[in-house]
TrEMBL record:
It comes from Psilocybe cubensis. This is AB hydrolase-1 domain-containing protein. Signal peptide: none annotated. Transmembrane segments: none annotated. Belongs to the AB hydrolase superfamily. AB hydrolase 4 family. InterPro entries: AB_hydrolase_4_sf, AB_hydrolase_fold. GO terms for molecular function: acetylesterase activity; monoacylglycerol lipase activity. It comes from the Eukaryota. One of its GO terms (biological process) is medium-chain fatty acid biosynthetic process.
Length: 266
């Protein structure tokens, strides 16, 4: 942002992150600073798709338990911070998570995410099902006010139900015959290359280079505050800060790296 302060902001996200980006764009509406966005393999109706996933033997024992173990491992990596205050709700639910054996994602969300996954209100929720219903993005497409491309696969083992139509002319719903969950690999010798990269780049390039938007609304309002956090003047409660990142280093959210990236909500 320092080097190119007037560059258009474009959004791209995958899977659960796609659900978050969809909710963000919809909730911001006319205030959204992004010029355009793309989401892949969004879970949309998290309650319905979560129930379908756990109803299948393979879905529950491969996908749901796999995601649950990953989440539990992430919590273990940060247990010293999460257990630093014995009087906090975080301490209690973290102890419960650490004692769980091979939890499915919905079991872990029921104990942890639904309780301390965000600020109050709306957290805490009664259970994971209530949290999934609230967090779903399939009912907010009509609130999106920027060009928005979605791509899902009809054979996705995680996302069984996707929006089939949308009255919002800014939203393009793409459904491929195959692709699994974030698969979409090419059928030629480049078996490790996803063909979706090309249309995504075309969409983002079109949005960034040729699309005319509300430049005053999309004009960057980011600044570096005295505490070193990058903030948005239009919403100063939100901020982020990069810490001790070496040049050309890879930030792997599953590798347990510490003091790399910290978000803040005041």
């Amino acid at each position: 942002m320092k080097a190119f302060p007037d560059a258009p902001l474009l959004g791209l996200s995958f899977s659960l992150g796609a659900n978050v980006l969809t909710r963000y764009v919809a909730e911001e509406g006319d205030r959204c600073l992004l010029r355009s966005a793309c989401v892949l393999a969004c879970p949309w109706d998290m309650k319905f798709n979560g129930d379908r996933l756990n109803a299948a033997i393979l879905g529950r024992h491969l996908w749901s338990k796999g995601m649950g173990r990953n989440m539990q491992a992430l919590i273990k990596q940060h247990k010293d911070i999460l257990l630093s205050n014995p009087d906090s709700p975080t301490y209690k639910v973290t102890r419960r998570v650490l004692s769980m054996r091979n939890p499915a994602l919905n079991e872990l969300d029921n104990v942890f995410t639904a309780v301390i996954g965000g600020t109050s209100p709306p957290f805490p929720f009664e259970d994971a099902a209530s949290y999934y219903t609230w967090a779903s993005s399939h009912k907010c497409l009509d609130k999106i006010r920027i060009p928005f491309l979605t791509i899902n696969a009809s054979d996705d083992p995680v996302v069984k139900q996707v929006p089939e139509e949308c009255s919002n002319g800014l939203v393009v719903l793409g459904l491929t015959q195959g692709g699994g969950h974030l698969g979409w690999f090419q059928s030629d010798d480049s078996f490790d290359v996803r063909w979706t990269t090309k249309p995504l780049l075309e969409w983002l390039r079109m949005s960034g280079d040729y699309l005319l938007g509300d430049h005053e609304r999309m004009k960057s309002s980011l600044y570096v505050a005295d505490d070193g956090f990058l903030r948005d003047a239009k919403n100063p409660r939100l901020g982020c800060k990069v810490l001790e990142v070496k040049e050309n280093s890879l930030i792997d959210g599953n590798a347990g790296q510490q003091q790399v990236f910290r978000g803040q909500f005041l």
